[in-house]
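Hi R.,

Here's the chain you asked about this morning:
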Amino acid sequence: MVVNGHNGMPIESIDENSDINKHYTGNSEDVFDETVLKHWLTNHYIPNKPVLFNDSIPDSYQRLVKHNKAITSISMIPITVSSHIYGVIVLASVESKIEASAVSRLSPVLGSSVMALKAAQSVKGHNECISEKIASNHFLDSLLATSPVCVVVVDAKNTIVFANDAANKTFVGLSLDAEQEMTGSQIDLFLPNYNSLFNWRRTNRRAPRDNDESTLGFLEEQSAIKQSGVEFIVNIHVFRHSFGENLYTTLQISDITEQRAGLEQFRETSQQLNALTHLVPVGIIRVDDQWKCQFANDKWLELSGQSAEEASMTGWLDAFHSDDIQHVLEKLRASLIVGENFCSEVRLVNPYGNVRWAEMNTQVLYSDNGNLQGFIGTFADITERLVYQEKLKHTAEYDSLTGLANRELFTKRLDQALLASNRGDFSVYVMYLDLDGFKDINDTYGHSTGDVLLQKVSDRLINTLRQTDTIARFGGDEFVVLLGRNTRDDAHIIVAENLVRELARPFRIEENQLNVTCSVGISMGIGGVATAEVLLKQADAALYLAKGEGKNKYRMFSEELNEQAKHRMYASAKIRSAIQHDGFFLVFQPQASIANNTLVGFEVLLRLNDKETSISPQECINILEDTGQMISVGQWIVKESIKQMSVWLKSKLMPENGFISINISAKQLLDSHLTSLIFDCCKDNNISPERVVLELTETTLIDKPKSALRTMKQLKSMGVRFALDDFGTGYSSLTYLQRYPIDHIKIDKSFISDLLTDDNNAKITQSIVTLAQSLALKITAEGVEDAATLSVLDKMKVDYFQGYYLSKPITADEVNNVYPAKQTSNVLPIRRRLKK
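And here is the predicted structure, written out as tokens:
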């Protein structure tokens, strides 16, 4: 609402009986309480500067609004001329805040009002120039001074009568508080085309209506000149005012030089991007949230065989292979729902039926306010790459001479068959074939004839065996057969007899009739017990048995070895049951200091909780290793060992520097979870990792030494120590001491048991001790069984010992009985305590 004095009278001079003029916009008439407002006007409560309140509105201003109205913002803007308030603009909002930028847009209205008032004063005899009158208006002066937009007022003689700070700074280069030097200058010094700006009909911009000089005009990209002579580009808003005989023009000027340069750069970049989308060797489509294709580049049209019209709307989906489209749509929908990009290999089919493989990648698109707009999809042609990979795969998995599977592929299929047999409880049969007399043919007829013979043998094997069987050539004249699942118990015998019979028939190569026979070795196993390596070794052993018996025969793996295999099957079943039913337990072999007969730690050993079985501890470990179950069981050993150590520490059984030794297998050491497992166990049980010693053997370190070293360094950084077990029995023990972070060596009991009777063993032991001492390593002697041996080790300055002279491996309960709290000294009578 705009309120002004009656008949041009200043508001300050009216009384309650005077009339005031009210001008409403919107629904403000329903909001303001006119009685309160008039009371404000007559009592001079109107502020002489603009005020704006959002949210927290003073009670005095709240009373301006009717009682039944709730407002969120209110602003009061006085219109002053020559220090008198002639009017006031009152704004109120019932829904949102009033922004300061919205208030600033009232400047044209205020300017018009002020000029009208000044013109009225001029008629009454006031002769001040317009610039002085504008300056006397506090609100307009403040508003224009802080406006970032250049405002210039020009009279009918093209003389600048007013220029705000922004205009002076832009055109003259003055600071905001400097004198306004544009005033008094001719406008065409700064706008050389000023006189032509009002020829509205010659511009192609938005122009005012005819015969309406006061209407705001907007002129784009006009030339302007700074006082320094620098040219630049501006946009101009024009507003003309007629007051009596005087005509004034208000110009709002915006410098768009950088904006236009940015637009040019954007256009150039857009052209480059448009060119790139058609030049890159990747198909590109832009699909909106309605699955309609908005753009497809040339490469997409080439890959899909579609025209631009065919690809538009949802036609792009027709390019996908019918077997792939459902999968692609499901994955795309899922990716758009969660906002994740999608990647997949897909097949594109052109209208002629040609198929190309493409790697499809998508990028989800969103608007500025976060709404889904669709996605951009790229399609890289990978057909040639896949063909090449297939060729490489064939080369890697098939024999180049015969086309049969090679060793690598055969081993994979044998592993798969063993896994299936473990689930399906059936036997797997492997046959090893060797041609009898092949060497003689090679030597007599040459290698080219030998190669042809191998190809003909391959063809005959294929025709003799079933489609479910796998045939491979391992090299030379060695062939291996994996029989498919059989329904008859004697199927392997029938197949072996057929092979021996068929390969005994003559082969004709050119003019020569060649005769060879074959020997066959057969092995049998079940997954979870046997491995591919074991079955191949058994079949190879049976093959040589067949050759030794006169060739042209087949033989099953020997009965003696078969008994061993049966025992292993029995042991494997027992171990598998123990894993499922907590059938393992731990025993602890004490280790003591030789110098002072005090307990220093325990070596942890795994035992199978089955008194009737004949499975040795070492056999148990071997089966766990061969069947891949050592890692899970080993994790259990680590957890239980550290937990037990925590119990002993709390009961003061373990000495201050006591430790627990845990044997680690090769597969455990290469397990990526070993480091975190030990760290977490130590943390959960409040145990320092320095109390944990991991015992390794040379065979543990042989497989993947770099990976083993990396894991050892990680554990070493935590404080874990390492002991090299069975030291002296391998051929490269010294190498391991140099290469790996070993803290401790354990002299194998094979040297200790004959220490008193074998002079060589004594010398070797002394050498090991001397070497360890020079490297500052701790030394433990294993297998000490008498006092005399212990005395010799004491003279050699060996640090620790273990063995039956000290104690056999005992359970945790037995440890508690023979080592009561705080009595870890005088350990040698432990055997007597055990007997009690």
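One quick note: The first strand starts at residue 2 and ends at 4.

Cheers,
M.
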